[in-house]
Each structure stands twice: as structure tokens, then as C-alpha cells.
């Protein structure tokens, strides 16, 4: 029986809080510039066309909000929530839907907005699901891509940053539901028990 992992997070026993060290990997400034360029690229591919953003809860929320404002033109959005199952940092490949989309995507130009592409199993599940619903176009934008962790044969059409195989938080991404509000993307590392330390 697989255990539910809300997020693929560093291994910590329940109730245990270790010292967490955060190191800025990608500053908010760099994120802003990259998101602006991604939006330009997307708009070039879909000029004068309504774009329906589908955000994968909850990690994509800040990315989607910034991307939507940079896109301009006619933009709508909807959200889906899924859980992947596994132990600690490993995935079994089992994905379960918690909340489906509110509206049909049939005939629409859909852009799936994901925070991070890791094994790719979540995105694979979503693409199979969405293809069946006959959108006019189905594209994917991810902020971060951990290329070396990939298991499923998927890739994004628009990628913000390729990052190394490190656990990251901030700009929507969490560790145990914390740090989503950090403006920068940071690498989180566990150390001896203590408090959170943020390195400049
Ligand atoms: P995948 O199915 O393995 O590609 O996992 C995608 C999901 O795992 C993401 O949407 C995140 O919620 C979570 N995830 C993977 N890596 C990280 C990370 O480094 N930090 C926070 N969440 C992560």
C-alpha cells in the first residue's frame, strides 16, 4: 500500500523539525525577467487567441498569476489538484485527482502551468487526461525543470529554468506547506536540529 506524499520532500520523521538552510538559487528579479520572456514567446505562438491557463495546485499559483499578467490579451484560468504517491523523495508513479477543472477545455487553446517538472509522472497523467477532452491546442509551461530526475517521457513547451537535482522551495513551491511565499526559489537543506537559517 503506497503512503501518501503530499510533496516529494526531504525525508523527515513525523513531528521532527530539523534545521533547514535556505540558499537562494534563482532570485525574484531573474524569475520576473524570465516569466516576461516566456509570456512573449507564448503570445508569439498564440497571437490574438484566447489562452486558457490550467494551473496545477498549489505550487503553480504564483507563477500562473505573474504569467497571466505578462501575457496580455484574452486569458482565462482554471485549476486542477492532484496528488502523487510515493515514499519521501521517490514516486510510485501513482497519481490521484483531488479536484477536477471547473469548465470544459474542449476546443480551447490550453496552457498547463506547472511549478516544477521532476519525474514528469504528474504531467504525463495530466496530458493523457486533457488530450481525451479534445482541446484545440495543449501546451505546457513549467517554471523549473529537474531534467535529470525524469522518468516519464514528457517535456514542456516553455521552460523557465533547468535546475540541478536539489529540493527547492519558494515562489509557490513548498516544503511541508511552508515557504510558498518566498519571492526567490531557494534550495532547502536539512541539518542538525535548530532553527531555519537563510543564507544570503
Ligand atoms: P513529478 O510528478 O515527479 O514531476 O512531480 C511534480 C510535483 O512534485 C511538483 O508539482 C511539485 O509539487 C513536487 N515537487 C517535485 N520536486 C519538488 C521540489 O524540489 N520542491 C517542491 N516540490 C517539488
Blueprint (SSEs and pairs):
Blueprint (H helix, E strand, L loop, with lengths): L19 E7 L1 H18 L5 E7 L3 H11 L3 E13 L2 E10 L9 E9 L3 H11 L5 E9 L12 E5 L5 E2 L15 E6 L6 E3 L1
Parallel strand pairs: 1-10, 2-3, 2-5, 5-6, 6-7
Antiparallel strand pairs: 1-9, 3-4, 8-9
The chain binds inosinic acid.
The site of inosinic acid has 20 residues, from strand 5, helix 3 and strand 8.
Concise summary:
The protein has 200 residues and is α/β, with parallel strands linked by helices. The chain contains three helices and ten strands. The relative contact order is 0.24.
What does this entry look like structurally?
- With 200 residues, this protein is of the alpha/beta class.
- It contains 3 helices and 10 strands.
- The chain is globular, with a radius of gyration of 17 Å.
- Inosinic acid (IMP) binds at residues 7-8, 56, 59, 84, 91, 114-123, 167-169, 173.
Features of the shown structure:
binds inosinic acid; 200 residues; 36% strand; alpha/beta; single chain; 10 strands; disordered N terminus; globular; six-stranded mixed beta sheet; four-stranded mixed beta sheet
How far the N terminus sits from the C terminus, by CA atoms, comes to 42 Å
> How many strands, what sense, and barrel or not for the largest sheet?
6 strands, mixed
Shape: globular
Low-confidence segments: 1-7
Task: Report the total helices.
Answer: 3
Amino acid at each position: 500500500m503506497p503512503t501518501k506524499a503530499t510533496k516529494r520532500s526531504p525525508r523527515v520523521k513525523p513531528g521532527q523539525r530539523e534545521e533547514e538552510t535556505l540558499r537562494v538559487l534563482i532570485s525574484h528579479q531573474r524569475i520576473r525577467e524570465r516569466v516576461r520572456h516566456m509570456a512573449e514567446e507564448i503570445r508569439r505562438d498564440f497571437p490574438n487567441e484566447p489562452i486558457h491557463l490550467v494551473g496545477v495546485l498549489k505550487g503553480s499559483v504564483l507563477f500562473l498569476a505573474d504569467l497571466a499578467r505578462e501575457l496580455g490579451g484574452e486569458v482565462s484560468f482554471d485549476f486542477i489538484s492532484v496528488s502523487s504517491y510515493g515514499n519521501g523523495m521517490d514516486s510510485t508513479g501513482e497519481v490521484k485527482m483531488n479536484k477536477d477543472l471547473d469548465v470544459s477545455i474542449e476546443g480551447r487553446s490550453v496552457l498547463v502551468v506547472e511549478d516544477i517538472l521532476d519525474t514528469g509522472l504528474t504531467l504525463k497523467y495530466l496530458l493523457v487526461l486533457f488530450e481525451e477532452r479534445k482541446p484545440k491546442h495543449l501546451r505546457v509551461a513549467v517554471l523549473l525543470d529537474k531534467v535529470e530526475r525524469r522518468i516519464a517521457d514528457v517535456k514542456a513547451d516553455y521552460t523557465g529554468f533547468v535546475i540541478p537535482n536539489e529540493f527547492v522551495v519558494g515562489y509557490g513551491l513548498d516544503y511541508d506547506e511552508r515557504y510558498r511565499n518566498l519571492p526567490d526559489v531557494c534550495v532547502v537543506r536539512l541539518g542538525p536540529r535548530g532553527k531555519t537559517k537563510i543564507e544570503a
